[in-house]
Amino acid sequence: MLIRKPVIASLLAGALALVGSVLAVDTGFSGTTTAAAAAAVPRPDHVVIVLFENKDYSTIIGSAGAPYLNSLAAQGASFTQSYGVTHPSQPNYLALFSGSQQGVTDDSCPKNFTGTANLGSQLLSAGYTFKGYSEALPSTGYTGCSSGTYQRKHAPWADFDNVPAASSVPFGTFPTDYGKLPTVSFVIPDMCDDMHDCAVGTGDTWLKNNLDGYAQWAKTHNSLLIATFDEDNFSSVNQIATVMVGEKVRPGSYAEQINHYSVLRTLEDAYGLAPLGSAAGATPITDVWTTSPPPTATPSPTGPASPSPSPTPVPGLVNGGFEYGTFTGWTRTGTTAIAAAPHSGAYAAAVGSTSPTNGDSVLTQTFTAPPGVTKLTLWWKGDCKDTVAYAWATVVVKHNTSGSTSTPLPRTCTANGSWQQVTDKLTPGHSYTVQLVNHDDNHPGDPGITWFDDLTLS
Question: CB 220: neighbour CB atoms within 10 A?
């Protein structure tokens, strides 16, 4: 949905101005500050980024099948709202490495880009160092599309002519003296150890056996480990696990929404590099560092993102089409995500999950109906594989001024895959609270998810 209302534009402008003022503060981190945003990101001596394949967030975080990754999440920053940017794998790797999917929409090989800027070329041009370490790569600089369990589609630096062949090396050359690592390294396990062809536990054990030494070293040597995934298991939600561990990382769970562009922007800010492509519009990760002010307490994933019991009504709905790409204006409970599966525009809200969840997941917003507004309209689409006795979607509107409650969408369980419209009558000047609800009973065989989009007032 396109954002048309002046009040929304005004609120967004105010928010952007506030962000700009915060980023302009000189926080005194080590390294030369080259831009206002960069001042909020410390500069590690070494960064190692390891990518795994095709697993959704709930398959990793909190799962007994990934004990080591969960131990890293406890030692560092664990992002509860981290997402891939598309499907399938290859464009996600390109997005993280170059700020763009480069027009790639599949996993075909080879891809060759001439003179196209990327993180590797940026680092090298700025006097830093870069290498990509790929397990099962047969030789340094190998440009073939595959060899045994190696796949070039997971090694994006091989696609760019401005990254030297010498920067693409077998993982067997990863140094045991971590002080000899490049400034930034990507580590790509093979098709088994990255969890693509083998179990989660296989990749989890590989990570522990091969990179725990670096992870522990990083915590005392101004360095950083980032463990993440390219995409989830091909759902429309595309939520993934992302964990950061290092000396300047403040342990905890962080609920801001991030994606591959956010991670790239953070690295570019750390080293004073100009943000590439979509990274220029991404917000760098600034709250996880010990060099930044402590964040306010983050509620658990099952609690409300904003705990205020009496929200102040705003004049009209904010972000009713979720086109900010965030949940600005909304309070969240349970499992929610911004999804690239809209009724219109670029985004919708996904409430619930393609994996089982327990109880209600809810998006809530309180607003005042502006003069002349008499109707709330919204669109929803369900994927409920159970019966309405155990799982459902519903929309509840509390008429705060009159004290009544309506349910424009009564409890419904359907998996027909079609967008459907519901409406509710409003009175100008009255206060309302709209709740978008997905309920699931946590049964392993029939998870439920509901998408909502295009909430408008007329």
Answer: 9
